[in-house]
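Intended use. Records like the one below are meant for learning the mapping from a protein sequence to its folded structure. Do not use them to infer anything beyond what is encoded.
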Amino acid sequence: MRNNTIRKQKGRDDDVSPFFNSNKKIVIELDERHFDKNSLMHAVIQHLKSEGKQCEMIDVNTLLLDGKKYHLYETNVAATYCPPVQRAILVESD
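Structure written out for the chain above:
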C-alpha cells in the first residue's frame, strides 16, 4: 500500500467556490483516492496529526482542529491529461 501524500493549500480562492471565506478554510489535495467519506476523514486526520495539529473526528462530516470545529467537503478537479485530483476542503463552522 502506498503512503498517502497530502498537499495542503490555505486560502486559495480560485479552486473553491467564492462562497467560502479564504481565512476560514483549508484545502488539502489528496494523491490517493478515497471512495467513502469515513476513509477520506481518516486520511485528513492522519495528515493533520503528522503536521503536529490537535485533531479529532466528531463525525464523518465534522472534525475538531486545534479547538475549532471544521466541516469536511470533498471535490474532484478534472485535469486534461492526468487523473482527477481529489480535494478535501475543511470549512470552519461556528
